Amino acid sequence: MKKxxxxxxxxxxxxxxxxxxxxxxxxxxxxxxxxxxxxxxxYKSGQxxxxxxxxxxxxxxKESLQEREAAESNRPKxxxxxxxxxxxxxxxxxxxxxxxxxxxxxxxxxNGAEILSIDKKGVTLSFAGEIVNLPAPGQTPxxxxxx
Length: 147
Fold this sequence. Notes:
By secondary structure, this protein is of the alpha+beta class. The chain has helices at residues 3-33, 59-74, and strands spanning 85-89, 96-99, 102-105, 109-110, 113-119, 122-127, 130-135, 142-145. The chain folds into 2 domains: 1-37; 80-145. It contains 2 helices and 8 strands. The protein has a 5-stranded antiparallel sheet with strand order 4-5-6-7-8, with no helix packed on it. It has a 3-stranded antiparallel sheet with strand order 1-2-3, with no helix packed on it. It is elongated and about 110 Å long. The model has no long low-confidence stretch (mean pLDDT 76).
């Protein structure tokens, strides 16, 4: 008599497991039938870059990259050795720099390069799309690409 409740409990667990496995098998068959197809949307906004596209280089972009590199190689280069920063006055309302024996302020041009700013670290120039930092006397120049 004591074994009867255990047998009933085991029988209930067994039937529950069989029924659940049957429902799982049916559900897996229905998943394949109910696959949702989403429409492909093209991003159209003129000349702007698609923010959803991959940024990695593709085979089609390699040609445009080579063309851009060729155009950059034809761009004039600034001769940093021809620009000699002899002094910087940066603690005033109008900062000034002495370059090639000329006193210059922000907005002035020298050798085709426009002075963007003057601070205690040096002079920032713009030349042919490049930003060039001419450091204060006694330091080395740094070349940065304009973003």
